[in-house]
């Protein structure tokens, strides 16, 4: 379809999906580079793709900003007005061409959701008047919104599942501050099931297609949470091994029930029940407030030095060289050095990590055999990888907590020492058995980093 310059400004008429997608991509590329030029060369500020999705909580009212900051935002706003008008006009034309209600143009202004909306409109084919009637669909009015094409129905399934998934994730993480069965089990399975049901509501789809759409829905959700600064890359990677299989299982269940006649007549009601199910699980967890269990991690190493020499390094070791282990380079907090004030029970040991210091009052001082301590202050367990300068999700505070630790030195023949380190900790992440796999492995690596440094220093001094 050819389009004249005046068609970019006049709301009347329609536009096909190819023209809509082409103008949308080129328009965004032009606007992004224009914004970048203005930000970098006129205001000397960095500007990237993710600047368009800065969290609303971090944006002050324009009247409370400094004049220079206000001028910057006002300039970007003025530059965006022509593009906004063109986007609204073309979206109205595309909705008309696809046979969808015009009020859906409001989705153009919803952050990140507008990307999915753009994808959907770029995939939906044009419809005639006879196609937009629901007579040929029997009693399933819902199916009238689902495209016949595989890509179109997949895009609609994402539009129906990802935005509610974002809202449910925010409910659990921000409002209920609950990282449990609802977030990591119920939500992936439900999103996968719902995505497969929407995907197959127009016509039965293959098992591979249903599972693929289900996994895609949870992957897009993860990207959305990263884009709106709710989570970082590291935590999303750790959640993926449990979330993706559950989403795939939900997609397989959706494949099995997609051919049932009752589903085609009651799809909206069934999807509504699914949306209610996950918040119900989250509220039940929040109300139950189950106390987290205490776990124990034990590590040991052999040192070619007597216990007396090893003890001096245990109570306060020098700075450790920067880590080479991938788990620490990925953002997990790692120990740097240990300091102690006083001696005997009641002394205070500080183990300094990359994110802060553990405060460790000494409980047992049995020189040179046993040092046992409690922990009264815990730093953040990791630093998130994120496109933003800094994010602070609730799970960085109080969800992985060390209760105490112990060093045990056992003399061995030939002047050697068996050095054992133990940590007692708890975490409030569920299912606890899954997250313990990660936390045990992380704490064991922390132990080894400390024990190997103590060994090297003690053997060097010997």
Tell me what the structure shows.
It is a single chain. The chain contains twelve helices and seven strands. It is α+β, with helices and mostly antiparallel strands and 462 residues long. It folds into three domains: 1-128, no CATH class; 138-290, no CATH class; 294-461, START domain (Alpha-D-Glucose-1,6-Bisphosphate, Chain A, domain 4), CATH 3.30.530.20. It has a seven-stranded antiparallel beta sheet, covered by helices on one side. The radius of gyration is 28 Å and the shape is elongated. The chain starts with 16 loop residues before the first helix and ends with a helix. Residues 55-64 and 130-140 have low confidence and may be disordered.
Fourth CATH level, the homologous superfamily of the largest domain? START domain
| Total beta-strand segments | 7
User: What's the main sheet like?
Assistant: 7 strands, antiparallel
- Considering DSSP H and I runs of 4 or more, what fraction of the residues is helical? 40-55%
User: What is the annotated CATH architecture of the largest domain?
Assistant: 2-Layer Sandwich
- The largest sheet has its strands arranged as 1-7-6-5-4-3-2
Q: How would you concisely characterize the structure shown here?
A:
With 462 residues, this protein is of the alpha+beta class. It has helices at 17-42, 67-98, 113-123, 129-132, 150-175, 181-199, 207-227, 233-257, 261-288, 307-315, 326-329, 432-461; strands at 294-303, 335-341, 348-353, 356-366, 370-374, 400-412, 416-427.
